[in-house]
Amino acid sequence: MQILIALTYYRPHYSGLTIYVERLARALAAQGHQVTVLTSRYAATLPAQEKLDGVEVRRLPVAMRISKGVIMPSMPIWAARLARQADVINLHVPQLDAAMIGMLGRFMDKPILLTYHCDMRLPHGIIHSIANLASNIANHITARTAKLIVTNTQDYAENSAFLRRYLSKVRVIPPPITLSPITENDSLAFRQRAHVQPGQRIIGMAARLASEKGVEYLVEAMPIILQKHPQARVLFVGQYQDVLGEEAYAQRLAPLIEQLGEHWTFLGVLEPTEFSAFLHTAEVTVLPSINSTESFGMVQIESMISATPVVASDLPGVRQPVLESGMGRIVPPRDAAALANAIIDILDHPQDYRGEPEKIAERYSPAQIARQYEALFNELIA
User: Fold this and answer.
1) Nearest alpha carbon to residue 166 among 116, 96, 239
2) What are the pLDDT digits (tens) for 156-209?
3) What pTM was estimated for this model as a whole?
């Protein structure tokens, strides 16, 4: 089967959406499908075309940027050319171009599957407001062109103002999750790199330094945690400098994080083996997101596969991994005290949150998720 996947950013761009699509595309290619990813050449140093892990990647030049989106004048030409060759089209939103590709696909009588990752909420400002409105309109057009819509959980679908309008089209497929295997030497090398000392109680957070991630609530929780565990230390993994649209947020947090001194360390984006070692090193990971731009939080499953429990916000979709596995605690969003108390409880009673990492890994494996997508593609083609 020839599958066309379209999204705004693809690897090496780092976000939950790009990681999801990369894993899905590779798994589909591994099952023998011809997979083409149509995306933006958001950096001039990236090749316009290449093959990665069996996936054909076509990157289009960017003429200008609007908020977090991009304008690609050649998109209609390439979308029509690649859609004509495809058996099925898989659109991933938020993505401004998805509406145009969806309409082209309908005109060509191509089956369209929409994967809806999350609601989009951009920072305040005229440009961001216009981009938000345009994205919302584009998403509705795309949803109408699609035969089916995939999302991570029924919980999120029923609570999303957008997805509630299309529940009859919604199919639930969890995100594909995989981790690089590690050795004892990998763990030791990571601990040395991060200067982890004996007796430190490591709290992990993996995210971009962005306002919707609720980083400030972990910052505010740390003084409470340090009263009970003076050796507690946060290792923050992910992009924390020059995050698009989040410069003011980073500046506001900087002095608060500096006050924590050695109890907070930014590690940046890690290679896959280092990331696995990070999750095995942490005693608990934290996902304190504050709104519906977070629909699941794949790092929760990555953490649970590593046998590391999680504290997550009580948000639609986000709460499901903890509720289903028992490997952690959920807390009200924007509540630093509740976050601190949940972290302390896990540090004090880790045996209460062991769960079944092997079964979780099997359920979320990319091969298993690709088979579920394949079943929907075949249904649409039939």
Assistant:
1) 116
2) 999 998 999 999 999 999 999 999 999 999 999 999 999 999 999 999 999 989
3) 0.89
Amino acid 118 reads C
For β-strands 49-52 and 55-61, DSSP reports them as antiparallel
H helices of 271-351, in order, are 272-281, 298-305, 320-325, 336-348
Domains, the chain? 2-176+365-381 (3.40.50.2000), 184-363 (3.40.50.2000)
* Beta-bridge partners for 16: none
Q: Are 239 and 208 within 8 A, CB to CB?
A: yes
CA–CA separation, 297 and 115 (whole Å): 16
Q: Give, to the nearest 10 degrees, the angle between helix 126-145 and helix 98-107.
A: 20
**Residue pair 82/36 in contact by the 8 Å Cβ criterion:** yes
State the Cα–Cα distance between residues 247 and 245, nearest whole angstrom: 6
Helix axis angle for 298-305 and 16-30, nearest 10°, is 70
316, 156 contact by CB (below 8 A): yes
The 10s digit of each residue's pLDDT in 326-347 is 999 999 999 999 999 999 999 9
Which secondary structure element, helix H or strand E, spans residue 350, and what is its range? none
Say how far apart CA 173 and CA 150 lie, in whole Å: 6
Identify whether the C-beta of residue 297 lies closer than 8 Å to the C-beta of residue 350: no
